[in-house]
């Protein structure tokens, strides 16, 4: 597989292509939606809570219809776009860095009879291989944090959106008031020097000609989700023997605990952004 020029891109790609990560996200995280869920209670399934996030994001879109062309950047296994293709009937494109995840995505599209409405493209969202004004909706869930060039990602989003098009996104972020240094254990694990903040995304989007249509704050769901994933990982550990290494599981438990602690201390933010291109 060819390498990218950007170290952060290669780090994220190698991680999500690894056997450990692929089996963890497929078997523990739900195998369809690789993002933070909106939970009704602490014991709800990861799949149900994650799908509720997808449904809420879709509800916020005012222009979504069966005629829409939708692009999901960093779309993982493509579960969000399969949901839109199935329920709305729109054409969806998933742009994702991990070729391993993309092969699972294509197989599930075919198995579920949705391949005619789904395109899966290998690539990085810092440079989108689509013409200007190509999509009615751009969608992203908990993916942009992995980029070392987040402003470039939003610049590309604004470029490929049609005038009047909508950009809906979530991302695990630092709270606007987060003290310096407290997130270092999280940043070390994901090999980045920073996280975005709600203020950063809003200011950047507006600078690029996308109107802020409101940030729906669900920051309390971030530690709740990671605690739920940690509990599920602990429960499933015996079943993961031979699929996920013990070392990876221990590192993941530590990483999840860091996210839980950061969220419970008020240092992290998460929620649903909606922007509209002017």
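Sequence proposed for the structure above (278 residues):
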């Amino acid at each position: 597989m060819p390498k990218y020029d950007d170290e952060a891109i290669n780090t994220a790609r190698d991680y999500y292509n690894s056997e450990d990560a692929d089996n963890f996200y497929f078997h523990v995280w739900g195998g369809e939606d690789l993002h933070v869920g909106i939970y009704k209670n602490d014991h709800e399934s990861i799949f149900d809570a994650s799908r509720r996030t997808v449904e809420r994001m879709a509800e916020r879109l005012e222009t979504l219809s069966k005629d829409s062309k939708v692009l999901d950047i960093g779309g993982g296994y493509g579960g969000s776009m399969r949901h839109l293709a199935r329920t709305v009937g729109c054409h969806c494109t998933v742009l994702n860095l991990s070729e391993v995840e993309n092969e699972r995505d294509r197989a599930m599209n075919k198995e579920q009879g949705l391949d005619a409405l789904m395109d899966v493209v290998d690539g990085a969202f810092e440079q989108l291989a689509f013409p200007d004004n190509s999509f009615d909706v751009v969608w992203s869930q908990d993916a942009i944090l992995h980029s070392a060039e987040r402003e470039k990602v939003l610049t590309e989003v604004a470029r490929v959106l049609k005038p009047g098009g909508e950009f809906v996104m979530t991302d695990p972020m630092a709270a606007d008031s987060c003290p310096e240094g407290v997130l270092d254990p999280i940043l070390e694990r994901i090999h980045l020097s920073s996280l975005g903040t709600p203020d950063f995304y809003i200011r950047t989007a507006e600078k690029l000609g996308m109107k802020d249509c409101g940030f729906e704050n669900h920051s309390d769901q971030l530690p709740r989700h990671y605690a739920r994933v940690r509990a599920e990982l602990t429960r499933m550990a015996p079943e993961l023997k031979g699929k996920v290494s013990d070392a990876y599981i221990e590192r993941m438990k530590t990483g999840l605990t860091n996210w839980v602690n950061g969220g419970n201390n008020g240092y992290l933010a998460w929620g649903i952004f909606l922007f509209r291109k002017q």
